[in-house]
Amino acid sequence: MVVRTIHVGVGGRGAWPVDLLTADPRFQPVALVDVVPENLARARQVSGLPESACFTDVGKAIPSVEAEALVICTPTKTHATFCRAGFAAGKHVLVEKGMTMDWAEAQALAREAAEAKVCFCVSQNYRYNQEVRTLQQALATGRYGRPHLVDLIHHRHRPEPRTLTYPGAVVWDMACHHFDNLVFLFGPVARATAVTHNAPWSPYEHDAGVSAILEFASGPVCTYETTHQATLTDYRWILQSERGALRALGGGAWEWLPRGELRQFAPSGPAEPVEPAPPLQSEQGVVDDWYRYLSEGIEPGISGRHNLETLAVCEMVLRSAALRRAVERGELEG
């Protein structure tokens, strides 16, 4: 089964699908859509498509070629419009994260995809990183206990706002990656307590930092922080259980620090390396799961329907910050 694809947005994050799908015999790019001529020129060179396969309007591209699917890599605020264009034409859709930047609209998109009977996925590629897959593999063994305390801190130096010019962008466009990883590992968040903030020196019009306590229905409690305003980039991910602590070392690696006897909180010995998961380009993991959905009907965790649990965390965090109180998952169903 070869899936013919229309690529909507081929610059920036839109480059990787053109690169991967052109080289993948399971796919065949047949049209390119972008408003920047340089982006189209680069994508044409990679894909080998003629100038007649290039468009500046997705509405003209869809009826002009034979295709089964759309791959959408445009600014988040445009995702819903382009997804709906695909659904209306009966096309399968792979859209870059975040699916959208509004909880009600996210629910509507998942529902509309189901009604159109198309395979709708969101490119949450972080869950396919070696780091995350190694952690999932480690937790599945049961050797490391049941994590209860989780710290996930990501201070980032991103001085150019670029497309992150709307309220809540730090959550819908960046924290969604982290939340997706956490939901992938621990399941739904039951309650979120959060604040957003902006440093005095920030070039961002809207808050570009978020701090939150996330309480998972399965038990773990996560202390979470991300910001775009840091001078010193800092990434910390630690999970602590009754048996010890798992700590990310960077580059996909983890170490294990076992606890001593009961009630002894200090590590009992030197750190031990955690067996790594096989290396895999994260975007390749997205493509593989989407293709399995298209060809075998096996719905992956990145489907639009499943991605709602990730966007629910985004909504809970932003509601909590706005209301200055904890927000329960059940409040989103009202």
What is the 3D shape?
globular
What is the count of helical runs? 9
Determine the CATH topology of the largest domain. Answer: Dihydrodipicolinate Reductase, domain 2
Please state the average pLDDT score. Answer: 95
What is the helix/strand order?
EHEHEHEHEHEHEHEEEEEEEHHE
Please compute the radius of gyration using only Cα atoms.
21 Å
Q: If strands are numbered along the chain, what order do they take across the biggest sheet?
A: 14-13-12-11-7-10-9-8-15
Task: List the keywords.
alpha/beta, Rossmann fold, Dihydrodipicolinate Reductase, domain 2, 2 domains, nine-stranded mixed beta sheet, six-stranded parallel beta sheet, globular
